[in-house]
């Protein structure tokens, strides 16, 4: 490890993985509720489990982003972190706030939680992914600003590289666009319109900058390819991301009361959104093929290649599948969206975090890479989780196509629940794929505890 | 990429392209906001509808249902539920959910709404149904 303060990333990574486990367990509960409707009812109704599942996802990804930034920024800036102590304090604040929020979801009815946490002062709750009580939302803002202060000060006092600049823009964008979560007018169309300014401009905008900079950083380190080449690629990729992704927001404005012209703007620009993801895949493979050194951490390189491919498939291909307005007219609000969401989040954001953790954790622990035995296990985990996610996506896609047909296209459209019963087989298969994913995740965690004598010194 | 295309050129295109397309997005959004009053039926907005939306939110209805296609896909779309069930039918459905659920089936929780609350929820759903959604859902 080049800078002592990079070690503050460690608790962030550990928390990220812990919350990831929670996310997957609740995913399995949800999957089971899809086929055994009364499972855990009324103790944990579907909406509660879903809130826990998606909020844990967001929080663990944020932990991963912050940890990754704390590891990356000192090394790029060639200076110690501005304040490691602040980073550690923020870690505990964020962890406790996150944990209390999840406990709140599970312990009391959501309406009671809203009542208790001051939702009457400023109504922000009860909107998908932004369900957090007001104190949690404010906590996220405080933690994000203090984190950004810490990171920005570090960059300002050190070297400014393209990677750290792109990362900073991504992280500042994340904080700025989160502010729209506080805007919730009684007019439901306006509410939905600006809700996407947080949700879409995060995952199809600024988060991709974070993804790109993490990927570029790990590729520089593991391949030894010239920084000039990698940073040029990074700029091209993030340019493509934002020029397609910003107006690509329009693909959410087809059917929520917004004007018809969004069907053109949204279809055309979002149809181009796979391009930056394709560029990312080409980038990762190109750099690894042109490598000038053999980095001992093979697992990290595998995650880097994997995130390129899976983000392209999940976000790019599965996104394109239903993004054109005439197609989306039939697929909007069906399992097709769920299929896309699962693979896109795993491929783009879960995997890039796992890549960063894979690269950074051995170094924080004082070695260039883990033992061969540990890496083999980690790579098994990679394949098991990734293949399981491919199958989850395929089964949900099959369910979605059937749902669209049975419910919306056939000559005798069936009611929602009748159609759901007919496609239960695919939900069962999705659940089994989810079990395989959990086994992969258990292997992944086990890989941290596998030693071996051949650990190489950093 | 050839040597002629330098990193600083790439950087300039990044900043220029981002600013240009963000401004274009703002312009389109501004135009949308000016057109929305004709489409989102805000003229009909009442305190009761706002109360209904609040009830919709604090009971996390979006955690199972979709509204104009957005939300979860565990339970039916509700943007058109008033057309499918009628106002009284919708209220009766919500009121009659068994507390302990239905064995083996997906079930909506029993929320114990008062009559005023049910009226507000229905007013909200009726309002959503009146929004011009370009003929969605099919």
Commentary on this structure:
- The complex is a heterodimer of chains A (458) and B (138).
- Helix content of chain A is 75%, strand content 1%.
- Chain A contains 16 helices and 2 strands.
- In chain A, helix 1 packs antiparallel against helix 2, helix 7 runs antiparallel to helix 8 and helix 13 packs antiparallel against helix 14.
- By secondary structure, chain B is mainly α.
- Helix content of chain B is 54%, strand content 3%.
Task: Provide the descriptors you would attach to this structure in a database record.
heterodimer; A: 458 residues; mainly alpha; two-stranded antiparallel ribbon; 16 helices; 75% helix; 1% strand; globular; B: 138 residues; 54% helix; 3% strand; elongated
Count up the helices of chain A.
Answer: 16
Query: Mean pLDDT across all residues of chain A, rounded?
Result: 97
| Percentage of residues assigned to helices of chain A | over 70%
Q: Outline the biggest β-sheet of chain A.
A: 2 strands, antiparallel
- The fraction of residues assigned to DSSP E strands of chain B is under 5%
Mean pLDDT of chain B: 96
**Unreliable residue stretches of chain A:** none
Looking at how many chains there are and whether they match, the oligomeric state comes to: heterodimer
Radius of gyration of chain A: 22 Å
Secondary-structure element string of chain A: HHHHHHHHHHHHHEHHHE
The geometry of chain A reads as globular
User: Hey, which two chains have the biggest interface?
Assistant: A-B, 76 and 72 residues
Distance between the first and last residues' Cα of chain A: 7 Å
Q: Note the total helix count of chain B.
A: 4
Helix percent of chain B reads: 40-55%
The main pleated sheet of chain B reads as: 2 strands, antiparallel
Q: Give the class of chain A from helix and strand content and strand pairing.
A: mainly alpha
Poorly predicted runs of chain B: none
Rg over CA atoms of chain B: 22 Å
Strand order of the largest sheet of chain B: 1-2
């Amino acid at each position: 490890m080049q800078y002592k303060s990079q070690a503050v990333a460690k608790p962030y990574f550990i928390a990220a993985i812990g919350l990831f486990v929670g996310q997957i367990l609740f995913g399995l509960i949800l999957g089971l509720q899809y086929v055994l409707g009364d499972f855990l009812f009324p103790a944990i109704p579907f909406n509660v489990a879903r809130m826990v599942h998606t909020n844990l996802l967001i929080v663990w990804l944020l932990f991963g982003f912050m940890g990754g930034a704390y590891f990356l920024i000192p090394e790029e800036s060639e200076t110690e972190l501005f304040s490691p102590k602040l980073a550690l304090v923020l870690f505990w604040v964020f962890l406790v706030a996150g944990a209390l929020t999840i406990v709140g979801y599970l312990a009391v009815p959501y309406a009671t939680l809203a009542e208790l946490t001051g939702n009457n002062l400023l109504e922000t709750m009860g909107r998908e992914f932004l369900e957090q009580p007001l104190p949690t939302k404010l906590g996220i803002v405080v933690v994000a600003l203090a984190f950004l202060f810490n990171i920005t000060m570090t960059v300002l006092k050190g070297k400014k590289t393209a990677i750290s600049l792109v990362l900073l823009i991504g992280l500042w964008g994340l904080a700025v666009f989160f502010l729209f979560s506080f805007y919730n007018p009684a007019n439901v169309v306006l509410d939905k319109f600006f809700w996407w300014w947080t949700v879409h401009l995060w995952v199809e905008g600024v988060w991709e900058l974070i993804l790109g900079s993490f990927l570029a950083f790990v590729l520089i380190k593991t391949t030894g390819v010239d920084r000039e080449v990698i940073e040029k690629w990074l700029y091209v990729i993030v340019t493509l991301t934002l020029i397609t992704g910003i107006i690509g927001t329009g693909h959410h404005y087809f059917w929520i009361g917004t004007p018809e012209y969004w069907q053109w703007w949204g279809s055309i620009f979002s149809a181009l959104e796979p391009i930056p993801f394709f560029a990312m895949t080409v980038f990762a493979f190109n750099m690894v093929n042109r490598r000038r050194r053999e980095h001992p951490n093979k697992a990290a390189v595998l995650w880097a290649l994997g995130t390129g491919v899976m983000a392209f498939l999940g976000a790019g291909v599965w996104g394109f599948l239903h993004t054109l307005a005439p197609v989306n007219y039939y697929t909007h609000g069906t399992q097709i969206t769920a299929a896309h969401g699962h693979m896109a989040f795993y491929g783009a954001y879960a995997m890039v975090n796992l890549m960063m953790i894979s690269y950074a954790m051995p170094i924080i622990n004082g070695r260039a890479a883990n033992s061969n035995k540990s890496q083999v296990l980690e790579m098994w985990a990679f394949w098991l989780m990734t293949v399981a996610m491919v199958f989850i996506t395929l089964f949900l896609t099959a369910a979605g196509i059937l749902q669209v047909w049975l419910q919306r296209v056939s000559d005798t459209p069936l009611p929602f629940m009748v159609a759901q019963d007919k496609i239960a087989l695919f939900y069962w298969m999705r659940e089994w794929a989810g079990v395989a994913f959990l086994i992969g995740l258990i292997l992944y965690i086990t890989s941290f505890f596998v030693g071996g004598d051949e650990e190489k010194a950093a | 990429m050839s040597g002629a295309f330098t990193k600083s050129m790439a950087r300039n295109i990044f900043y220029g392209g981002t600013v240009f397309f963000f401004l274009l997005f703002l312009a389109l959004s501004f135009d949308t906001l000016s057109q929305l009053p004709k489409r989102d039926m805000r003229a009909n907005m009442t305190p009761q509808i706002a109360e209904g939306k609040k009830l919709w939110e604090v009971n996390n209805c979006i955690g199972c249902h979709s509204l104009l296609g957005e939300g979860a896909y565990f339970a039916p779309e509700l943007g058109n539920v008033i057309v499918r069930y009628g106002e009284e039918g919708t209220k009766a459905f919500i009121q009659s959910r068994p507390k302990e659920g239905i064995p083996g089936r997906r079930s909506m929780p029993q929320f114990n709404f008062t009559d005023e609350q049910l009226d507000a929820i229905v007013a909200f759903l009726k309002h959503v149904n009146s929004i011009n959604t370009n003929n969605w859902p099919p």
